[in-house]
């Protein structure tokens, strides 16, 4: 992918025209090759960009404007349809390049498996990396019906790579019994059902550490985000998720990268989910890119 000119399609609101001058890079990972229920998240990045035109550029939560942060929208990584391993390799190479250039990577999915190659790239640069994971699902399976490349496996893969004690999951309300038992046995942190309160308690323990944050939109209750591949009742509100993003922003953790995944616009004619995701990204940009 070329970085010598701005992305020619729709870009996220107030994207900076220069890759070289930008502190952060927004990029799409339009992949849904391994989903176990409903496909469609590959269309999420494009639609989130398109609806961002309706956003205000100012955040009253953080008292910052998007003009204060130079971020470049690189568009979507061109991924080969149906080829999961090649797609993951291309994502890892892409993020390797961003990190080599000193950029803050902010990804948009796509299914949650796309977070795995990003975490691999981040770990190469930050060997003391911690991961904050907000999701309805544990994503701790080793495989799904015999397939190790599945959107239900990325957090298990990350835990095996960086150590389960360095993974902190919040909002979890769905998964196999064996996944919860494994997490307990190996000392991985899982907060069931809630995000903001347990996150607030954990953040001081991560002070000063490089942290990657991955947010699956289905951490929200389907009432707030129906446009996703695997909806799961009993989730948090968009207000709580915003508060959690701000809690991280005001903490002493060093956010070094992040992603927002699993928006599937086709299942939400109201576009509530895409619009919510767009606002969440604005707050992530303004709160985490210093």
Short recap of the structure:
The chain is an alpha/beta fold. It is built from 8 helices and 10 strands.
DSSP strand count: 10
Number of helices, where a helix is a run of at least 4 consecutive DSSP H or I residues: 8
The named CATH superfamily: Ureohydrolase domain
Structural class: alpha/beta
Oligomer: single chain
Q: Structurally, how many domains make up the residues?
A: 1
Q: State the helicity in percent bands.
A: 25-40%
**Rg to the nearest angstrom?**
17 Å
Global morphology:
globular
Average pLDDT taken over every residue: 96
The first-level CATH class name: Alpha Beta
Strand order of the largest sheet: 4-1-5-10-9-6-7-8
SSE string, helix = H, strand = E? EHEEEHEHEHEHEHEHEH
Main pleated sheet: 8 strands, parallel
Family: Belongs to the arginase family. Agmatinase subfamily.
Protein name: Agmatinase
Cofactor: Mn(2+)
InterPro entries: Agmatinase-rel, Ureohydrolase, Ureohydrolase_dom_sf, Ureohydrolase_Mn_BS
Structure description:
InterPro entries: Agmatinase-rel, Ureohydrolase, Ureohydrolase_dom_sf, Ureohydrolase_Mn_BS. It holds the Pfam family Arginase. Its cofactor is Mn(2+). The protein has 290 residues and is α/β, with parallel strands linked by helices. The protein has eight helices and ten strands. Helix 2 runs parallel beside helix 3 (115-125), helix 6 (196-202) packs parallel to helix 7 (238-249) and helix 7 runs parallel beside helix 8 (272-288). The mean pLDDT is 96. The strands form two sheets. It has an eight-stranded parallel β-sheet with strand order 4-1-5-10-9-6-7-8, with helices on both faces. It has a two-stranded antiparallel ribbon with strand order 2-3. It has helices at residues 44-51, 84-100, 115-125, 154-162, 177-186, 196-202, 238-249, 272-288, and strands at residues 24-29, 58-59, 64-65, 71-76, 104-109, 130-134, 167-172, 189-192, 210-216, 254-261. Strand 2 and strand 3 (64-65) form a beta hairpin. It has a single domain (24-288), classed as Arginase, Chain A (3-Layer(aba) Sandwich). The longest helix has 17 residues, at 84-100.
């Amino acid at each position: 992918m070329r970085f010598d000119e701005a992305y020619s399609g729709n870009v996220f609101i107030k994207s900076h025209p220069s890759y070289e001058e930008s502190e952060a890079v927004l990029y799409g990972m339009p992949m849904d090759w391994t989903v176990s229920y409903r496909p469609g998240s590959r269309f999420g990045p494009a639609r989130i960009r398109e609806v961002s035109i309706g956003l205000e550029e100012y955040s009253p939560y953080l008292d910052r404007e998007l003009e204060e942060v130079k971020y470049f929208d690189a568009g979507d990584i061109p991924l080969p349809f149906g080829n999961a391993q090649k797609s993951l390799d291309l994502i890892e190479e892409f993020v390797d390049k961003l990190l080599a250039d000193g950029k803050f990577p902010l990804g948009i999915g796509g299914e949650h498996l796309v977070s795995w190659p990003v975490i691999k790239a981040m770990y190469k640069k930050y060997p003391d990396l911690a991961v904050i994971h907000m999701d309805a699902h544990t994503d701790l399976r080793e495989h799904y019906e015999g397939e190790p490349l599945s959107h239900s496996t990325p957090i298990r893969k990350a835990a095996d790579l960086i150590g389960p004690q360095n993974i902190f999951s919040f909002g979890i309300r769905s998964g196999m019994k064996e996944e919860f038992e494994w997490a307990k046995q190996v000392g991985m942190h899982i907060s069931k059902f809630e995000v903001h309160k347990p996150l607030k308690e954990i953040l001081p323990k991560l002070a000063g550490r490089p942290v990657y944050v991955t947010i699956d939109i289905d951490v929200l209750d389907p009432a707030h985000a129906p446009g996703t591949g695997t909806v799961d009742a009993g989730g948090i509100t968009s207000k709580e998720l915003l508060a959690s993003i701000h809690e991280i922003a005001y903490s002493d953790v060093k956010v070094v990268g992040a992603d927002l995944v699993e928006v599937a616009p086709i299942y939400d004619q109201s576009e509530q989910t895409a619009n919510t995701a767009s606002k969440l990204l604005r707050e992530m940009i303004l709160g985490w890119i210093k």
